[in-house]
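Hi L.,

You mentioned the student needs an example of a multi-chain input paired with its predicted structure. This one should do, with 258 residues in total across all chains.
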Amino acid sequence: MPDVSLQAYEHELRKSGVAPRHVRRTMLELADHFDDLAREARESGADDQRAAQYAIGELGEPKTLAAAARSQPELLSWAYRFPYAALIVYPLVWMAVTPVFAGVDYAPRVVRWSACLVLGALVTGLMILMLQLSITLT
Amino acid sequence: MCRHGRDDLAQSNPPFMSGVPELLLLRLLDQQEMYGYELVRSIRRATAEAISLGEGVIYPVLHGLEKSGSLKSKRKAVGGRTRVYYSLTAKGRRRLVQLQDDWQRIQTGVATALQGASHA
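Structure written out for the whole complex:
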């Protein structure tokens, strides 16, 4: 029961960009908290199902938890904290170092693929620019 | 056991709660180390149930405070389970003093304004 119920919290935390290690830790502590709440309810006479419902109700909405986590930037994964680095710098760095990891034998092939990707990105960027210009000028 | 239809400050007026959980957590942890469930219960007791957060919300706040160096945590085996206990650091004590000062200043300012408004 708890595993199924707590999955919604994990899903919301991951969706909000919380770093995986913080998600894992939060889930461990939430599971522990859930057990304490359910025990408290059972001691008051609730059956297992009602105890689980009570515990989930007390933990609060998954979206509220995710919002609280989002308000702590240091808990977010670096891609969410530095989106420009993630979208621009990271791919460029990987393109540059991929031949090293792929090995000398595959280097020419990786270089060709990288060149094609860069060319594709340039063509797409040019098309978007022209589209933007045509909208602006008409 | 179950508190249905909870109507506390946290839910009725969220903007008023900005910074409050942090202040309360630091204040309570200044007295003794505690784990999450214990902290939520202590907040309820200390505020006479005026403040009861969605209990899960406490963990991002605790983790943020730990990340900023105001808290430290350690795992302890208790009754066959491993609990994460939090305690205040020296930096956390300085932060608590600063937050208490800020809170007192705001409280005094709002009280003065309310008294002024009632006399006007």
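You could point out the following to them. The radius of gyration of chain A is 24 Å. The first helix of chain A runs from residue 2 to 15.

Best wishes,
N.
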